Queue: 4 jobs
Job 1
Amino acid sequence: MSEVLRTPDECFVDLPDYRFAPHYVDVAADGVEPLRMHYLDEGPADGPVALLLHGQPTWSYLYRTVVPVLVAAGVRVIAPDNIGFGRSDKPATATDYTFARHVEWTRSLVTGLDLHDVTLVAQDWGGPIGLSVLAAETDRFARVVAANTILHTADPGLAGRLTWAVHGEGDSRVVLEESLVDYLLYTQRAPVLRASDFVGAATVAPLAADVLAAYDAPFPEPSFTAGMRQMIALLPLTRNDVGARIGRRTMRALEQFERPFVTCYSDGDPATRGWETVFQERVPGARGRAHVTIAGAGHFLQEDAGAELGRVVADVIATT
């Protein structure tokens, strides 16, 4: 592996509403040395576990208003930072990051902490990563709350189902939403990426300057953003992409998953709109559940409606 960067601790001092003690675990993935992953561990040690997974370009700071709601409900909250994000280690070379390694790193966290009876709460890339961990460690997971997330498959059967199209057509063509392609190309060509630009553009309510700065805190220099940039490049756009193959394998596992599976999507996120109905139809554990639509929230519903999301998760844990 190339150089591994570690954001200085002083970058995380006095962030608004984020006064959680840091915890660390070494995680492993094929072909690279063990890395240090940061996670929050809040609430009663013997409580049911909620595993809160973030995506691109955020970190556990995203869940700062969700965590207290769950802790008050007696839930133990584990909220990691993906490798390359937050307080976790950051390989400096983009090609050290792969979709499979992100899955392995998160799986290593789950097994390393020996988590059981887990409620997976997954948003954005937290879905493809976390659901793939669930497929590999099914017995550790009791239920799922899917929140504004997708599962990369490029399946032709998704035609007409999603607001942002990503699906194969015929034997050798693919249909892609123009906005998705524009987003991917911009992030690969821009000389500097700022997490706050993406977060601020995908919420309904304007975010305070100090909150936006908190999203940039893990990336004090451009060299720290290799993982952020590469995660966008890992978006599977065709059926031949290794990420799409992982997604299809994970979907086959979900089609056998009979434990509670609840969707909690916002009404203001075209990037994931349609996936809630796909999950409701294809996952046995989703059938007959009280699925939730949160009004007045964007892609990062944790920012627009964090307490409401927390109450949904707490209710799912209490009633299933």
Note: The chain has a mean pLDDT of 97.
Job 2
Amino acid sequence: MLKMFNLPCQIAGTDEAGRGCLAGPVTAAAVILPKNFKNKLLNDSKQTKLSDRNKLKEIILNEAITFGIAHVYMEEIDEINILNASILAMHRAIDQLNCEPEHIIVDGNKFKPYRNIAYDCIIKGDGKFLSIAAASILAKTARDEFMQEVHNEFPMYNWHQNKGYPTKEHRRAIMEFGSTPYHRKSFKLLPEQLKLSF
């Protein structure tokens, strides 16, 4: 069962979406929830169906004490690498909070200090703590909306379905049509045996 983090202060949960994608930004969210917040649907976004994610997004936006959502785009990912870009996106999301948290809980095992605020990295935290789960929902839905918009620009990659992840269909489209400005140039877009020069 998901729970609130048992510390005597305001806790911001943060998580990212899109780290393993070939195209599009990495997106992070940070959320501070009311201490009495409860919702039976709320879980790790990867374990939540689309209709529930969309319902939860509206609930979180309306009921959170404060939230932030930030994209780090392809050019910056290529420049600083995906791990640093993921952490930067989380920092930028925390920047948007309208009050400074006293503690930050992070999904995963990597983070960099944000100001002088104490933090904990929690493996699979999006399935354990409500504020991280809420952040995962906001990050996932915001990134999916971005990929839906750019799908309309490049429909041959079917991003509205694969969201930029390295599916066989996505890689076939890269073979046929080449890369786009939304692809991460520092990522291996095709397996070695299928590599093309773009």
Note: Residues 23 and 66 are 29 Å apart (CA to CA).
Job 3
Amino acid sequence: MDENPIRFGIIGCAQIARKVSRAIGLSHNSTVYAVASRSFEKAKKFALDNKLPDSVKIYGSYDEVLEDPNVDAVYMPLPTSLHVRWAILAATKKKHLLLEKPTALNTSELDQILEASRLNGVQFMDGTMWLHHPRTPKIKELLEDTKLFGKLKSIHSTCTFYNETPAFLENNIRVKPELDALGVLGDVGWYCIGAILWATNNQLPNTVTALPGPIRNESGVLMACGGSLTWLAGKEENDQEEKVATFYCSFLSNVCLDLSIHGTNGTIRLKDHIIPCKESSASFEFTSGAHFTELHLGWTVEPKKIEVVSEVPQETAMVQEFARLVGNINHGSCPDDKWSENSTNIQIVIDAINKSLDLGCKNVDM
């Protein structure tokens, strides 16, 4: 443990908070300092169930965490409809903000959160864990190898899981319009769109189109949907290349976390891009320079499996990176705007998909 770890206050006891509280505990530069829920009893139960140290402060309201001068940063896994209120308040109280995704119901709300963060000089980061796994920069290294991979041409992302219990399909916050009105698009769809934009170095597409056949529950919340993103080739020599991406996300299909990225000379495939099958390592397949053999009886090159070892779980790596940035700010550095830019662009595409759905799946120009 570092001499001066970043002290986290956890606001909300959602299921995902169990994973992140564990991650904070495993981090060398962070500690869980306080936990808050809407009742003291619920916060106390969370602390006991997750074996948090007896020294952790237990609060029966979110305000108490934000008023605690010893809390450096807050992790906020509240329903999306509550983000704009509590995230802005956290920023005004000078608390650095690790905010669960989706970050807001729309870009306008996120802009308010980011403006409050900027005005108060606090670090913002959303809770996308896979970006912090050591496999991720290894893949980016290959994507940028113009000889082995070539020019990026297409991306396909699928993020689905199925929980048939009434407790999820009827009562989970992700299927209730008053809590998380974005439904599956904001939940696992966030990962699909985020992976696509990450592969394009955060370039927004020219056109976004929702795919026909979205599925909604009786309350109108999206349970399954898809979309396509298109980048048009620029006229100038240094402009972006023409490329296309598609995604599909669902609460109604078996677990599938596929990501495939195709270039003019290479292909990258992952089967577990959001949550690796194992904590200790993660793999992906890479094929470069493949052609068909004579008479198309086979391939000249077989996909190569590349394994990347992870010293800590990806959520711990996320916490450590966030805490490092906060520590830098405490020593005079400015917040890293990269993370707010990532979140903003994902939110912009989500808004465009929703607009396309409202228009009957027509193209939306960006």
Note: The CA atoms of residues 220 and 340 lie 29 Å apart.
Job 4
Amino acid sequence: MIPVPNPIPEPAAFDERCRKRGRKWLEKNPGGKRPPDYWSDFRLDLAASFHDRCGYGAMWISSGTVDHFVSCDEDRTQAYEWSNYRYLDGWINSSKNKKRSRDFLDPFEVGDGWFEVDLPSLQLKLTDAVPDAYRARAEYTLRNLPIRDDERLIRQRRAWYQLYEQGKLTLDGLRERAPLIATAVEKKVAAKP
């Protein structure tokens, strides 16, 4: 996980095409039915705000989803609020299913240097930079989302790292697409005698 600027700019048409439509639907349908998806029209705006990187995986993804940080099951009133959306890889978003948002570290809360990718294992780990007030949620997030050592992310990290190692991607390109791996490379180079 890496810092994501917050707040992110709300698209001009969002209020009219999503929030107002959604609130109207919620008023007419107070039951447990899943709210209609008016938010996906703004997925690319959300992706741009996250620099096309997954909020938890911290790497470039070609087609992420709109995650409701506070799920519709937890609080339906947040279903159509721009400030509740995060850009995530679909399978990571699905892994949050039925878990409480207050237990997770929000991508908008992450500070610089709180997480690092270990070389050569490519596993994600916490650093000592995580403040005590956030540590329990950061640890919970690593344990309960498949971001630490899930083979799908390890393979993706390995692919970015190999592109760099083979000279097919510059360090600046790596920093843009997979910033935690770029930091790991810089740390490795700095440690050489």
Note: The helical segments are 14-28, 43-49, 90-95, 132-144, 151-165, 171-177, 179-191.
